[in-house]
Amino acid sequence: MFGSLLLVHGLARSQVGVDATGAHQGTRAHDEVPAAITDGGPVVDARGETPVSARMPARTISLTFDDGPDPTWTPQVLEVLRRHQVPATFFVVGSMAAQHPDLLRDIRAAGSEVGVHTFTHPDLSAASDLRIDRELSETQLVLAGALGESSYLLRPPYSSTADAVDNDALRSYRAAGADGYVTVLSDVDSRDWERPGVDAIVRNSTPAHGAGGIVLLHDAGGDRSQTVAALDRLIPELKAQGYRFATPEAAVGLPLDNQPVSTVDHLLGSVLIGLVAIAGVVVDALTWLLVVVGVLVVARLVLMLVVAVRHHRRRHRPGFSWGPPVTAPVSVIVPAYNEKENIAATVRSLVASTHRVEVIVVDDGSTDGTAEIVEGLRLPAVRVIRQVNGGKPAALNTGIAHARHELIVMIDGDTVFAPETVGRLVQPFADPAVGAVAGNAKVANRGGLLARWQHIEYVMGFNVDRRVYDVLRCMPTVPGAIGAFRRRVLLEVGGVSDDTLAEDTDLTMAICRGGWRVVYEETAKAWTEAPATLGQLWRQRYRWSYGTMQSMWKHRRAVLESGASGRFGRAGLGHLAVFQVLLPLLAPLVDIFLVYGLLFLDPVTTLVAWSAVLGVQLAAAVIAFRLEREPLGVLWLLPLQQIVYRQLMYAVVIRSVVTAAGGIRLGWQKLRRVGGLEVHLASPPPERPPQQLVVLRRG
């Protein structure tokens, strides 16, 4: 709907040039133009087989005004005409008339008439017959809606005198003539568009030696104060010389212009004018909304980076420590459902940890041999628990129940850790106020375009956000790919809930509401397999987005609570609501207005503004990548990401909101894995005799 209104608004308010500039030069060939036209008068009738023309009688003047109506200058011109009781013909631009239909009525009430000057002011000699027909018919609709009348008089934009008519211009006159139009040129050019001064305009508008003429003037397209002043002098002077004033068709003996139209045409025209009015109000409102959105987005980006840099400096300042080193052993839970492509790499990376770990792989009813692959590795301190498929939350809860240690790390079955990751991930637990730790998830498969876009998103989006949430103490999500928890905290909140599709977000919000601090440990890195196709990415992000909204709704009461829960509710949920839900719904306006600006405004200015915003984003991306110590080479893809990838993410949010509003429950979307995480492993750990492998069966 917004796109349609913008199109209507753009057509109605597209910039109109001055008739004397930008004229189509055409082929400049005149061989098809009969002498009756080139040697004839300014009124050209091409409705018949052979075009004919007519001259104005001696001492007969037709005052004509192009490019209006204009709310500033048209009323002033009409006032001069009324004072001197002189009629004129106003060749109006349909897009301007649609914005100011009241001025058309004023023109007719003043005794003047209205002609057609096309709808968007194109050069008709360079237009197709179809374009000519559309330009004229749309303008007729406006006249019908505003006046209940039509016009058969046409003044082509950029036209000149009869002796300048070339083959291209004649073709356009014939096309218009086929629709019943008579072309009215001019043979006296005031050149008021040059603003040469009142004296010059009066002089230019006076025919030589008492000849008749059609005078070209303008009531729009710029400052027309000289035209108004010159008109007030010109009319008395011409009257003193014996001139009479008449409309072009009356002067050459044609039927009167502006005849009544049918009720249907009047109704259709009224609808068009109404749409233009509605589009104007809506687009003006959207423009202000766009300004607000732009300011919020840029302000958030700058603020987030400032806070993220502060977080980085705080964690890297000399002497920073969470407290005494945490050396307690850790239980690592790996929920796995059909993860045969990556499960071996995942488990090997965990066993290679420099921190003491036990690895619990919970096979959630896999049908692809996931459990058998793990068993076949014969790795130390690895347990496999099989259960009937119950979903990821059930698998995690099974792992928690069988964990032997107080500190628990949760990792997805498509993720690998560096040897030092677990040790770094649990160090914040030296602070007794910390209940959970979010690690630094990175995209492992960066070979394709889509994966590289996700890599950019992870670095300058997710991980920057987590730094800020850490500082503000309102972390909404510990990622399922890499997170650490105190066992007693998990038990306090009732374990991992299956109420939502974003179990990691739901769990984190519950922990924050319980008064525990959730922090981000940037040095604890994990590499996870990102979706490799658009379909897989859509399903993953759709689930994430919908699950996040479910979690926000579930924990909505935190906004009204006091203490840590209230701080999380107002800061964390408020931020998610504004920047993860509301702004993505409005953000497509930026791209719609980009197209609007390129089509209907100054394309250079539009591109400069868009490039400036992109420059800010690029600078932010450079800072974010520096914080993560990631190579900058991939950032050449950022502009394309903003054009293509970002639109997909907006569509995901919009679809999620529609789904949530409709009360539809979304099912779990399992992604197809392709593997290849082995490249991120260090040297594989030595194998152990099979008797050290403990296999538990459950369900």
How would you sum up this structure, described in words?
The protein has 23 helices and 19 strands. With 699 residues, it is an alpha/beta fold. A hairpin with a 6-residue loop joins strand 1 and strand 2 (52-54). The model is unreliable at 21-26 and 682-699 (pLDDT under 50). The two termini are 53 Å apart. It has a nine-stranded mixed β-sheet with strand order 15-18-16-17-14-11-12-13-19, with helices on both faces. Strands 3, 4, 5, 8, 9 and 10 form a six-stranded parallel β-sheet that branches. The protein is 48% helix and 13% strand.
Protein traits:
699 residues, nine-stranded mixed sheet, disordered C terminus, alpha/beta, single chain
Short description:
With 699 residues, this protein is of the alpha/beta class.
- Average pLDDT rating: 87
Structural class: alpha/beta
> How is the main sheet built?
9 strands, mixed
**Helix share, percent:** 40-55%
How does the overall form come out from the CA principal axes?
elongated
* DSSP, total strands: 19
Instruction: Measure the end-to-end span.
Output: 53 Å
What ranges have pLDDT less than 50 throughout 5 or more consecutive residues? 21-26, 682-699
The strands making up the biggest β-sheet line up spatially as 15-18-16-17-14-11-12-13-19
Percent of sequence in beta strands: 5-15%
User: If helices are DSSP runs of H or I spanning 4 or more residues, what is the number of helices?
Assistant: 23
Radius of gyration: 37 Å
